[in-house]
Write a structure and sequence with these properties.
By secondary structure, the chain is of the alpha/beta class. 45% of the residues lie in helices and 18% in strands. The protein has two domains: 145 residues, Rossmann fold (3-Layer(aba) Sandwich), CATH 3.40.50.2300; 149 residues, 3-Layer(aba) Sandwich (Rossmann fold). α2 links the parallel β1 and β2. α2 packs parallel to α11.
């Protein structure tokens, strides 16, 4: 009996020794878990031009999807109230970094986790909204790029007045539900006093309210329209542009996406450039840099765009000195 047990033990040891290299080989062949990048947006699908620039820059930096990085997309599909739950989903997945597009997504991500690194982009008011302590020293687990749209609002009003000096009042379209609405409106009101411009405020919290706002502008005999920054307005840009064109209302927007859709004018930062630079921040964080050690970057490219097709369509004239200042003219 003892001899038989010894033979069995000996055979087991022999088999183990023979199979050991196979165990090591199988272990070596197990795919390592890829770093995950969570992407949180209000309503910016992957096909949007500026997000595509982000992915192009990631590829240039050496990242290939499903080879050395994985993506987890979460879009609120135009509903800001969904952002907190979507941010919480990314946290539960334990992604390595979260890219938050615009202010609402950035706030939701920050509220969802004090640990997972967050890189935001195209955020208007990072200090005033409470995202970071300061631009130079953001602190915590979050940093990114600002589009300074709050600070540029006064410039938009100034350009609108230069282009249409006798048009009054200036209708201002605002979405009070957007977290940056208040600070932007304050900037515009301050600029209006300095420029001696009369403003007429119209608030739209839901797309269903556009018709009512338009009726109010008509009754107020608005001369021009200034559209304040709001993710909801960006999603509804085709409708806003159409309304402005039908009523021959010269309109200033904050981003070129409106002008590309047929809007008259825009002045603001170059969004694709912000998303390109956001990719470099994601790269640094994935390689171990703490967000607190990365200052919030400010825009370096600004664009004043005029659509001459719309100028002709609504029957207005742009002064030559204003036209000469445009960085891009759509003919």
């Amino acid at each position: 009996m003892h001899t038989q047990k010894s033979k069995i033990v000996s055979l087991a040891i022999t088999l183990f020794v023979m199979l050991l290299p196979w165990f090591h080989l199988a272990e070596a062949q197990q795919p390592a878990k890829l770093p995950q990048l969570g992407i949180l947006t209000f309503d910016v699908p992957r096909s949007e031009p500026f997000l595509e620039v982000f992915f192009q820059e990631l590829r240039r930096l050496g990242y290939v999807e499903d080879q050395n990085i994985a993506f987890e997309f979460r879009s609120a599909e135009g509903r800001v109230d969904r952002l907190p739950d979507l941010a919480a989903e990314l946290v539960r997945l334990k992604v390595n970094v979260i890219l938050a597009s615009a202010t609402g997504a950035a706030l939701a991500a920050k509220n969802a986790t004090p640990e997972i690194p967050i890189v935001f982009t195209a955020v208007s008011y990072p200090v005033g909204s409470g995202l970071v302590a300061s631009l130079a020293r953001p602190g915590g687990n979050i940093t990114g790029l600002t589009n300074l749209t709050t600070d540029l609002s006064a410039k938009r009003l100034e350009l609108l007045k230069e282009a249409f000096p006798d048009a009054s009042p200036v209708a201002v379209l605002s979405n009070p539900k957007d977290p940056i609405s208040g600070p932007i409106l304050q900037e515009v009101e301050t600029a209006a006093r300095a420029l001696a411009v009369k403003l007429q405020l119209f608030e739209v919290r839901d797309p269903k309210e556009f018709d009512g706002a338009l009726s109010g502008m008509t009754r107020a005999r608005a001369g021009t329209l200034l559209v304040l920054t709001s993710q909801m307005f960006l999603r509804q840009r085709a409708r806003i542009v159409d309304i402005a064109a039908k009523h021959r209302l010269p309109t200033m927007f904050w981003t070129t996406e409106f002008v590309d859709a047929g809007g008259l004018m825009s002045y603001g930062t170059n969004n694709p450039d912000l998303y390109r630079r956001a990719a470099t921040y994601v790269d640094k964080v994935l390689k171990g840099t703490k967000p607190a050690d990365l200052p919030v970057e400010q825009p370096i490219k600004f664009e004043f765009v005029i659509n001459l097709k719309t100028v002709k369509q609504i029957g207005v004239t742009i002064p030559p000195n204003v036209l000469a200042r445009a960085d891009k003219v759509i003919r």
